[in-house]
Write a structure and sequence with these properties.
heterodimer, A: 278 residues, alpha+beta, BirA Bifunctional Protein, domain 2, 9 helices, B: 208 residues, D-Maltodextrin-Binding Protein, domain 2, 2 domains, 11 strands
Chain lengths: 278, 208
């Protein structure tokens, strides 16, 4: 066979120096996580595809038994599926972390980084308000561990669902004529970036109270009430992203997903994040 | 602080887009600048780049540019998730389904917009083969390569000359200022200032 120097799109080996660098980052992360009381879980690299209807960008294939299986593309639902049957009410809150590769067939439309090394952590159960703040603080600490000055932007993913009539306005950031009169002032403020928690309170009281607790505890973090995602996925509450303040690159993202564990048989609220290590 | 990078479309929208930014008080690249081989122009603390119109949403989507100007045709075709905070008053046109002379039954559609066309056909529960072309799309219908085309119609002159038939509106098209989600989250102050300036200039222009 002729020597082939090519690799499939989006994957590359890490040779000695790069591997050493990654192991060093990993070691520092784990030290912080374990000190914060998080315990590691190890998840399989493949699982039945039908369990993860939201993981649309996973590589799938039929195994020897004729079952459709998917390669890991997102740790969060896999952690829920693994932990849900094992959780007894007395065990909560659980603090866990995981690390490893995820592979996405559309990792990016530019074709880069289909295989990504991630380290994630989550808190299952416990007081949701305290959990949100603890997980945000931990994400900031981990970013500092990497030598970055974190800039954290957060919102509540239930806001868009609470204001369906404002979806087009939030998606474009432009006022449209079809905004109902009762929502015009709010829409204008959201577009201008001047909306405050008092403004959304009447429409989404739970989200407003969650966000106000976070704003009080973490004044340096940026609240963006007008943040919008086409597809919110499994997130039900807090939603955040961690950036390096200097270069503006994305370091991590995460949020609260209170219905995910229920899907796998045991209702439990959870909040977590994932760092993608490059 | 890194400069903001703005991607502007070459071609159909280029001159009016530059005029809009100039009206908003931005120091834009001059015609002499544009004749050079340079790819990135720094003016007023902003990096301006000029790319093919369909590539603007791609640059913005991936964060290679913070903002840009793109027609809704390209925004839809590239499935851009960028915000569209300003709709410009110039460059409006319509994306239409156009039939070949004699209006044959719909079997094949030539277009520069295969994704938009696929979604349009699905929404109308129509079945037809899509033939992606890079330009001069009407020619496909004129030469009977396809029964129909989906393309932008500005004045309707081409349609009249070739006795083509406008059959249905696919979308009303206007150019928009687009802003990447990443830029909006990480540079909200500067981005909001940019949006406000452009919006004000467009508004003033409309009232004149």
């Amino acid at each position: 066979m002729a020597t082939n120097h090519r690799y499939p799109t989006g994957v590359l080996p890490l040779l000695m120096e790069e591997a050493a660098r990654r192991r060093c980052i990993e070691a520092r992360f784990i030290e912080v996580l374990e000190r914060a009381g998080f315990a590691e879980i190890v998840l399989p690299i493949i699982d039945y595809a039908e369990l993860y209807p939201t993981s649309k960008d996973s590589y799938r294939f039929v195994d020897r038994e004729g079952e459709l299986v998917a390669i890991r593309s997102d740790f969060t639902p896999m952690a829920a599926r693994a932990l849900a049957p094992a959780i007894a009410p007395g065990d909560l809150p659980l603090r866990i972390y995981y690390r490893g590769d995820v592979i996405r067939c559309n990792g990016s439309r530019l074709g880069a980084n289909r295989e990504m090394f991630q380290i994630g952590a989550e808190i299952v159960g416990g007081d949701p308000a305290e959990g949100d703040i603890e997980i945000l603080r931990l994400a900031a600490d981990l970013a500092r561990t990497l030598g970055f000055e974190p800039s954290i932007v957060y919102t509540d993913s239930s806001l868009v669902a609470a204001l369906p009539a404002l979806r087009p306005v939030l998606a474009t950031k432009r006022m449209t004529d079809d905004v109902p009169r009762t929502l015009r002032t709010l829409a204008e403020k959201l577009v201008a970036g001047t909306a405050a928690l008092e403004d959304i309170g009447p429409f989404a009281p739970e989200a407003a109270s969650r966000l106000s607790a976070i704003a009080a505890a973490l004044p340096g973090f940026e609240m963006h009430l007008d943040d919008f995602e086409e597809n919110g996925g499994y997130y039900t509450g807090l939603r955040f992203r961690v950036y390096d303040a200097q270069s503006r690159t994305t370091l991590a993202q995460g949020g609260r997903y209170d219905n995910l564990y229920e899907r796998f048989g045991t209702p439990a609220a959870a909040v977590g994040f994932t760092f993608t290590i490059v | 602080m890194n400069p903001l990078r703005i991607a502007l479309p070459k071609g159909r929208l280029q001159n009016e887009t530059l005029a809009a930014f100039a009206a908003a008080g931005y120091g834009i690249p001059t015609e002499d600048d544009l004749r050079t081989r340079k790819l990135v122009f720094v003016r007023d603390g902003i990096e301006w780049i000029f790319v093919k119109d369909g590539d603007v949403p791609v640059y913005v989507e991936h964060g290679a540019a913070d903002a840009g100007v793109a027609g809704l045709d390209q925004i839809l075709e590239q499935e851009s998730t960028a915000y569209q905070p300003v709709e410009f008053p110039f460059g409006r046109c319509r994306m239409m389904l156009i039939a070949a002379p004699g209006a044959p039954p719909l079997t094949k559609v030539a277009t520069k917009y295969p994704r938009v066309t696929r979604r349009y056909l699905e929404s109308k529960q129509l079945r037809a083969e899509i033939v992606p072309l890079a330009g001069s799309v009407e020619l496909a219908a004129v030469l009977n390569l396809t029964s129909h085309v989906v393309d932008l119609v500005e004045t309707g002159e081409t349609v009249r000359v070739h006795r083509l038939e406008l059959q249905d509106l696919v979308a009303e098209i206007s150019p928009r200022l687009i802003v990447g989600k990443h830029a909006y989250r990480t540079e909200s102050k500067r981005i909001r200032a940019l949006i406000a300036r452009i919006e004000e200039a467009c508004h003033a222009n409309l009232q004149r």
